[in-house]
Design a protein that fits this description.
Layout lengths: L2 H20 L10 H8 L3 H7 L3 H24 L6 H17 L1 H10 L3 H24 L5 H22 L4 H12 L2
Helix pairs in contact: 1-2, 1-4, 2-3, 4-5, 4-6, 5-8, 5-9, 7-8, 8-9
Length: about 180
């Protein structure tokens, strides 16, 4: 990779990181290009060079948030074989990551009004469903892909409940544990 391409990638990442940090303090409506560039220490022109539209920036924020969450989950489940324990560890890692990044999670929830964001969420969830289907298959569930899709929906809803409470919910987490043990 050339020095110029590497510099552009670092700048783009800095803009996304700045937006994710600002999400702890500002709503989607308050997250302006001016705030982002001030936080990232770059010019407004640089912002629009990397993100010609607000939707493209929101897509990058969404991808940046979920890439971080996915990395945490991947690390947490790295040594586990497909099955019940891997699902439990994955859902705990997801919920914990969402709580650590509450601002970003809330901001991205607001961004769901954008069709492009919704499409990206659907595509990511479908990919994850096929990965989690391995776990449901290992547990002997008769409809592993469908079960995985439902599990993802339940885990996401649990994250939203915890977002509202601003804390882990023992009851919600216990219910999730029951979901992956029932058949």
């Amino acid at each position: 990779m050339s020095i110029r391409v590497e510099a552009a990638a670092r700048t783009r990442a800095a803009l996304v990181d700045a937006g994710l940090r600002l999400a702890d303090h500002f709503s989607l409506a308050e997250l302006s290009a001016n705030r982002v560039v001030a936080e990232a220490g770059v010019s407004k022109g640089t912002f629009f060079h990397h993100f010609p539209s607000r939707v493209q920036y929101l897509l990058a924020l969404h991808a940046g948030f979920h890439d971080r969450v996915d990395a945490e989950i991947t690390t947490a489940i790295a040594d586990l074989p497909p099955g019940q324990e891997r699902l439990r560890v994955a859902q705990r890692a997801y919920l914990d990551s969402c709580l650590r990044n509450r601002g970003a999670r809330a901001l991205l929830l607001e961004a769901r009004a954008e069709r492009t964001i919704t499409d990206q969420i659907s595509a990511r969830n479908e990919t994850l469903a096929h990965v989690a289907a391995q776990d449901f298959r290992a547990m002997g569930w008769s409809h592993p892909v469908e079960s995985a899709r439902l599990w993802i929906g339940v885990v996401v809803e649990a994250a939203l409940l915890e977002l509202d409470d601003a804390a882990a919910s023992p009851g919600v987490r216990a219910a999730l544990e029951q979901y992956v043990t029932s058949k």
